[in-house]
UniProtKB/TrEMBL annotation:
Similarity remark: Belongs to the protein prenyltransferase subunit alpha family.
Entry-linked Pfam families: PPTA (PF01239)
Region (Disordered), start-end ranges: 1-36
Classification via InterPro entries: Prenyl_trans_a
Superkingdom of source: Eukaryota
Natural source organism: Puccinia graminis f. sp. tritici
Protein name (record): Protein farnesyltransferase/geranylgeranyltransferase type-1 subunit alpha
GO MF, one example: CAAX-protein geranylgeranyltransferase activity
Keyword Transferase: yes
EC number: 2.5.1.58, 2.5.1.59
Bias (Acidic residues) ranges: 23-36
Gene name in the database record: RAM2_2
Record's keyword annotation contains Repeat: yes
GO cellular-component term (any): CAAX-protein geranylgeranyltransferase complex
Length: 370
């Protein structure tokens, strides 16, 4: 084996206790490190620690023995069933051990050479299906799964699998990254078909889930040439308007949600639409509750009645709009002052910078930058 990874040492958070296992086969697999007759041809290699380490990691005895055998197997460059079982034991203690995941992938590649039906790969995916929710923060496990799907040449069930993992943690970075890599790599229409519906469902559950907003932008704008080739400019304009209306609706439900405001700005930028088209929408959100309740038009339709007002993101956007108009420069400065002194003082320096830039640009042509 020419190269596996940087080190065979586990990460510092190696589990000192053996995890609970409810699988009969896994209980049997754990016992192989104590079956000395299975390892007579393997010379265990202890970890090369310094004589007096500053921090002594309290490895579980079984984990230590398994790692000693693993180093011996690694030296032999052995890709066998027993080596596969050995990696299973180690990963149950340390799901983030990159060297072991890498070697496990290579073992399965070699075993597949004599297994044209892919039974080993199918069994591996079944194991991952069972335990992936518990390993969802291990990028090594996700990379390993991607390799297994590639070897099996069948990604048809992966989006549904990801949906199940998202039920355990709808914001996990690795899960969303894996989903996006699947969509781009395989680019199958049936995989793309439910993406917008999925984001809408997840936003109904948690409108502040920035991971979902990010995925919606990825689906609608970042990758549309993949799943919607040959789209016309008029069709794209319709998509932009659809997204603007969708986002406005979500903002009214939770006005102080920065994820939705960032998404709205991104939509305008991709659609080359000026900020001032949002003036009528954001203006009510810059008022106090008393001002809204006493004005003739009353409370805006659809606005959450429990909202904290005024909304800093709306005030910022309105200030950005007025900063582009020489006639309303003074109002923009007053809004920046409101943000600086009351609504968002933690970014006082930023609001001061925007105020100074607005004053400096009074004599220049209005900018349409979003």
């Amino acid at each position: 084996m020419s190269s596996t990874a940087d080190s065979t040492k586990p990460q510092a958070d190696a589990t000192p206790e053996k995890p609970e296992q409810g699988h009969e086969e896994e209980e049997e697999e754990l016992s192989i490190v104590d079956q000395d007759e299975l390892w007579t041809d393997v010379t265990p290699i202890p970890q090369a620690d310094v004589e007096r380490p500053m921090v002594q990691i309290a490895y579980h005895p079984e984990y230590r023995k398994a790692m000693n055998l693993f180093r011996g197997i690694l030296k032999k460059n052995e890709f066998s069933e027993r080596a596969l079982k050995l990696t299973t034991i180690i990963l149950q203690y340390n799901a983030g051990h990159y060297t072991v995941w890498n070697y496990r992938s290579q073992i399965l590649k070699h075993l597949q050479l004599s297994d044209p039906q892919g039974k080993h790969i199918q069994k591996e995916l079944a194991m991952l299906n069972k335990h992936m929710a518990d390993m969802r923060k291990s990028y090594q496990a996700w990379q390993h799964r991607a390799l297994m799907v590639e070897l099996l040449k069948d990604a048809s069930k992966e989006i549904e699998f990801v949906n199940q993992v998202l039920k355990a943690d709808a914001k996990n970075y690795h899960t969303w990254t894996y989903r996006q890599s699947l969509l781009c790599r395989y680019n199958e229409p049936e995989m793309w078909a439910g993406e917008l519906t999925t984001t809408e469902r997840l936003l109904e559950e948690d409108v502040r889930n920035n991971s979902v907003w990010n995925h919606r932008f990825f689906t609608v704008f970042d990758t549309f040439p993949l799943h919607t080739p040959g789209i016309s400019s008029s069709e794209f304009a319709q998509i932009v308007q659809r997204e603007i209306q969708f986002t406005k609706h979500q903002i009214l439900k939770a006005p102080n949600n920065p994820s939705a405001w960032n998404y709205l700005r991104g939509v305008l930028k991709r659609g080359s639409i000026p900020l001032n088209t949002l003036e009528d929408f954001v203006l009510p959100l810059t008022k106090t509750r008393l001002e809204l309740e006493t004005q003739a038009s009353g409370w805006p339709t659809g606005l959450n009645t429990q909202s904290d007002l005024p909304v800093p993101a709306a005030v910022e956007l309105l200030a950005n709009i007025y900063a582009q108009s020489q006639a309303k420069t003074q109002i923009a400065l007053e809004l920046y002052e409101l943000l600086s002194e009351k609504l968002d003082p933690i970014r006082k320096g930023y609001w001061k910078f925007l105020s100074q830039r607005t004053v400096a640009n009074q004599a220049t042509a209005p900018s349409t930058t979003v």
